[in-house]
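Researcher: Next entry in the queue.
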Amino acid sequence: MRGLPILVVYISILFALSTSSRLGAPGLQMFRMLVWMNAIFAGLLSIGYFSTSISEEKEEDTLGLMQMAGISPLGILFGKVGGRVCQTLLLIAVQYPFTLLAVTMGGVTTDQVWSAYIGISACTFLFSGMGLLCSTIASRNRMASILMTLGIVVYIGIPLIASEALRYLQARRMMTGFWPGIFDGIHSTSLYIRIGVIITSGFGESPYSIQVVTNIAGGIVCYLLSWGLFGVCTQSPATERTTRGLLAHPRGMLRWFAPGRPGHHPFAWTGFYFVGGGIGGFLLRIAAYLLLVAIGSLIALIRGWGWDTHFSGLLQKIGLTLLALDVALLASRTVQEEVHGQTLQSLVMLPRPVSQVIYAKLGGALLVSLPGVTFLGLTLLLPHGFQNLDEYFNKHAGWFFVAHFVLAPHLAMILSMYMRWGIVPLSVGLAIGSTAAWVSYFDSVRIGPADRGVWVGTIVVLLISIACHFWMIRKLPTIAAQR
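Model: Structure for this entry, 483 residues:
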């Protein structure tokens, strides 16, 4: 966590210097990349960092000991999340002196730097409150992370929808009345929309914008809700290291989702039902991708795209990103549940290679990601689907980015052997940082996307993925022996 900010600063400076001769205003290029990467890392870090503050105590069955020691609920809440908030804000603040280099490089003012960092800090405060609330409500880290992810999706998605609705009203000159003001207020609450305003030339607004005020107010509300719900939600802490959820004792209609007997492939059966969620997880992913199609269709209708390359390209990029995140999550849980559930020793003692067990379990878990693969295949049937994909791979070095999508799940499996939280966000963040570093290197040495330099980068990333794979297989027996 402390190394990533320095890496982000270095990559931003490298990118600014490499593109200064072609784009101009190197300070603005550095500032734009630095702010966006900080905003992305803030969201990714919040999923596994703030959302486990209380739920990890429930899993370890130590929350009752704190209450028996006479610590008040307010003291527990602020004691658990306060240090994490301070650490995160310090990680943001340590970059401020380096960001002032963008002012001396040209194209950026001090007001823009202040506005960006105040906005990121306010958004981080909101995410800390959301994470604390999710951790208080949920009984396990996994559920808390899922709730936090949904909260971030809502935080990003609703203002984007409001922004598209506002664009629709502007195109038809319907900017008077009740709804334009509502849409304008909603879309101004998101940091990821506010950044686009801050990094524009000629920015002169106050750093204490609607986004800052609403994010701080939202964070305070989440803290108060966590305090109010603490007594109700912590009466029955989860003491089991692993849980089967509704699959353990299905009733009524839930019997359709019961796992049944494992048959001749017990490890694949375990991966499918207890890592991927079984039939319920499969149907949930189908519903998520149908919702994605509905949202993409709404955006295409508002912008008047029709069935052109923009619509298919949007669905393909979002679908590929979601599929990579889903695979990374399934890969990390495949190993993490065995390591932290203290069942890895039993698997190592079986009369078969540990790699075979992990392969079978991962293969069963990946079956629930078939809706994502099917979704990407169906996007190729849209008008301009193949044309857009061909352009992406030939013009935009698509294989290079796909290699980083392959890298993220392998990093997740490695990190799952040593970490309890933040595995998927950290692995995705490292993959994004690696992509930015390679792109900056390509620009600095003037290597175009169609040249062999891109293929060298792709091969190197794939070799790193293979090395992570063999490292995991080699280390699993050692970790089992240590535990």
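Model: DSSP finds 22 helices and no strands in the chain.
Researcher: Noted, moving on.
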